[in-house]
Design brief:
Residues 220-316 form the Transglutaminase-like domain. The chain is α+β, with helices and mostly antiparallel strands and 518 residues long. The protein is built from 15 helices and 23 strands.
Length: 518
Amino acid sequence: MLTSSHALLFAASLALSSGPGGIDSDSDGLSDFLEVHKYLTDPQKADSDGDGIPDGDWLERREYAYTVRSLVQVMRPVTPEFLNDAYQDVRVLDETDTYVELEVIHYPLVDLKGVGADGESEDVARWLEPGPTSNASRDLGQAIRAAMKKSGEGIPDLRGAGGVAAAAKWLLDHAKYKDRFTTFITAVDAKGAFFIPEDLAAYARKKASGEGLTAEDAWPREFEAAGMFEHGERGSCSSSAIYLSGCLRALGVPTRTVLCIPIIDAGDDREWELLERGLHHNGVRTTLEAALDGSRRGWSSHTFNEVYVEGRWHRLNYSDMDAGVFHEGFFGLMTHVATFHDWADARMWETIGRRSTLSNDDKEEDVFGHQNPYSTLALRDSFGVHGKVRNPPLEDPVITVEALYWTDSKELPDDILRSNQDRGRLGLIAAVSARSMGDLVKQLKRADNEVTLTTDGSNEIKASFHPGCIWLLGQRGYLYAPIDKASFEKIAEGTTCRATTREHESGPRWILDRTITR
């Protein structure tokens, strides 16, 4: 039975867009498309579980899916009218002149690759119109087509998602990446002219001196689409999104720009605790931990595109069509916070761009308190009571030693060898495969890290790999096991030692049984 309180909640839920519209066969406020691909409810039943509460209710809609709920304060710009999409539901809880507080329900496991139209009829003409930065034109479209033909690859069929992805890849290959500095600090006036605000001019001059390129020189190379195509250069993800917006529109593909942030500010230890305690899906949590580990310092967000093709909006992350929001290569799980027709509409120079020029001390004084212009206040996941998603077991990791060196070995990477020499380190260095620094530290803190060196004469030397001394170079970690000076000096040149670790029934397991010659 639908109680009055549930009726009020349901009405409030329906007042929110739950994402792409289209056919709603059971009139529960959720489109058939989203019931099939996002909520996993029955599009032919308004109340899939028969408990008297319609599927469109804010809580009820989560009962068949795995979800992650976050409460986050985000610096403006934020565009609530676009935030309910195929991957998340959003409610605005509070807002000030500086930030918007959002309750976000993420659906990380949604997979729309290869999925066609969503059944919604939409007028997308506005997303073909040029803007100050996404300056599409007939001339630009003709130039792109001519260059595609000249390259020998031809013009992809832009009526399909695969063809649009192929066009995006060609465009990205055409304009080589070179990160610059203007995308967040350049202002755009009412006539579409670019300028650096007076209070950001000193910062711009400092950045320009380091690059040997003025802002005026950088704009056509990272801030406006036609210039990037002409010069064959593009900048960061935001610059690349500007570039694709203008170029794909010039080819007749409706395109818009999407801004996302990571699920937490990875520079805030408190938010790491929220992740570790609040996420119980072992696969999701470990993926996020590995993906976010490299973002502990500095400012992190990601800008990409959406394109309208085959009857619905598709996420286009560089050239990856329908990549979704759960992705190890992009912070693990992203929150969609804004959508723009043109980058100029975001007015970044007034908010995020201005904050980025502040000192760390000044940043710590605002509501966010750390490097990033957002802060997660609460985080937890939920396995829908009627869902079929199961929590995969947390398997104890295996630490496989791929190579073993003495600390003074010339075969070590130069930086590690030099560090060992400067600090007088004596002992062993083990090379292991690694996803992230955080991953390695966690494993070493849980593992029995003792290693036994046995010489030809059956003498044993004990050492232990230290979680506080790790190098990460690409996907390889280097671990240090100190040996005291007296024992190290007893290992004569030419002596062959066998290095082994102990077997354990639980915890991370070492695979190490190697010989090493002094």
